[in-house]
Amino acid sequence: MAETKKETKEVVSIDEIMSKLSLEDQTSMKKLLYGSNYEPLELPETVMNFAKKMQFEIGSYRIISTPEQVRKARVVRMAALQTKLPLPTTAPVIEMRAAIWKRAEEAIELAAKAKVNIFCLQELWTMPYFFCTREKQPWCEFAEPAENGPTTKFLQVLARKNNMVIVSPILERDEVHSDVIWNTAVVIDNHGDVLGKHRKNHIPRNEDFNESTYYFEGNTGHEVFETEFGKIAINICYGRHHVLNWLMYGLNGAELVFNPSVEAGDFSEVIWPIEPRCAAAANSYFTCAINRVGTEVYPNEFTSGDGKPAHKDFGHCYGSTYITAPDGTRTPALSRVNEILLKIHFYYATAY
Ligand SMILES: NC(=O)NCCC(=O)O
């Protein structure tokens, strides 16, 4: 039987705390905290029933903008998925991946019913965040080729079927170049073709985030992918701390920058609501910060050379996925403990 850790009672979200206030105070707080240019988006009953059946919560919002008179408005419907591991970390690699795929397939089907056209998964979505262990086996077996690995092939079918762009952050094994490993996001277009990939270009070497044990900074630059629904870029997790990283995506024309992440810890949570939001306002694009949820417990104790006693988990991943618009308006954060699909509509004028 796999070892599990009894989670300490976590705060669910700031919104849950705010829900204890009067309605009037809640409205004022939300306006002050999040801005006034967003509103909850009601989804059709069929979508909500499907979500219930699949045991997904959904957060759905609309960013409000004034249509222009001359240029045609473009509606973009995007979604991000924050999930927890469906099995203990001791599950065999193939079983773990299959269980995670199943959950993602359900979420993508749900997003398709909600007419989503750009969908992003969380960082290293097919696996536990095992870098804390600094072990090789079995973890490196989760790595796979970006262009034609099993996860990409699996998502290509779903992208084609649902006319949906899917961003898939995986652990890449470059089989053509000596099996070198990278932290990579694969962009699959709505026809099921691989548009390209981005390799994480800033990586952490702090606390239990021992990523440089496995791979180095990416070599793909700050590419922007022109999809049918908008120009998108991916700034993977730690790149969030680097303002020039965000700037480069803006200079290269991004309209929406995803920040798929694995984040835990008090300090990290303090800056989580700040950095992607500032980036959106500073660079005039949308940002979407996605974090996993839950505490992952590993079979063997580990240390990270930081003087702390050996332990078996790297802390609680606090979810809190959210989206910010270029004017600084942001959505409330998703739960700190539950798996949720975040869906948003935004409108903006398209260039001729
Ligand atoms: N996955 C990842 O890059 N986490 C970053 C941790 C930090 O922000 O220090």
Give the topology, please.
Elements: H1 14-18, H2 23-34, E1 38-40, H3 45-53, E2 57-63, E3 73-82, H4 93-113, E4 118-120, H5 150-162, E5 165-174, E6 180-188, E7 194-199, E8 205-206, E9 209-210, E10 225-227, E11 230-234, H6 243-251, E12 256-261, H7 266-271, H8 275-283, E13 286-291, E14 293-302, E15 311-318, E16 322-324, E17 340-349
Helix pairs in contact: 4-5, 6-8
How many helices in DSSP terms?
Answer: 8
Runs in which pLDDT lies below 50 for 5 or more consecutive residues are: none
SSE topology string:
HHEHEEHEHEEEEEEEHEHHEEEEE
Number of strands: 17
Q: Which fold name fills CATH's third level, the topology?
A: Nitrilase/N-carbamoyl-D-aminoacid amidohydrolase
What is the overall silhouette?
globular
Q: What's the multimeric state?
A: single chain
The CATH class turns out to be Alpha Beta
Rg is: 19 Å
Tally of individual domains = 1
Ligands, ions, cofactors: N-(aminocarbonyl)-beta-alanine
What portion of the residues fall into strands of 2 or more residues? 25-35%
Q: Specify the structural class.
A: alpha/beta
Q: Main β-sheet, in a few words?
A: 8 strands, mixed
**What gap, in angstroms, lies between the N and C termini?**
60 Å
Strand order of the largest sheet: 1-2-17-3-4-5-6-7
Domain CN hydrolase: 83-352
Keywords: Hydrolase
GO biological process, one term: beta-alanine biosynthetic process via 3-ureidopropionate
Pfam families: CN_hydrolase
Describe the structure.
The structure is a single chain. The chain has 352 residues and is α/β, with parallel strands linked by helices. The protein has a single domain (39-65, 78-349), classed as 4-Layer Sandwich (Nitrilase/N-carbamoyl-D-aminoacid amidohydrolase). 24% of the residues lie in helices and 29% in strands. It has helices spanning 14-18, 23-34, 45-53, 93-113, 150-162, 243-251, 266-271, 275-283, and strands at 38-40, 57-63, 73-82, 118-120, 165-174, 180-188, 194-199, 205-206, 209-210, 225-227, 230-234, 256-261, 286-291, 293-302, 311-318, 322-324, 340-349. The strands form four sheets. It has an eight-stranded mixed sheet. The protein is globular, with a radius of gyration of 19 Å. It starts with 13 loop residues before the first helix and ends with a strand. Bound molecules: N-(aminocarbonyl)-beta-alanine (URP). N-(aminocarbonyl)-beta-alanine is lined by residues 123, 204, 206, 209, 237-238, 261-263, 268. Keywords: Hydrolase. This is Beta-ureidopropionase-like. Residues 83-352 form the CN hydrolase domain. GO terms for molecular function: beta-ureidopropionase activity.
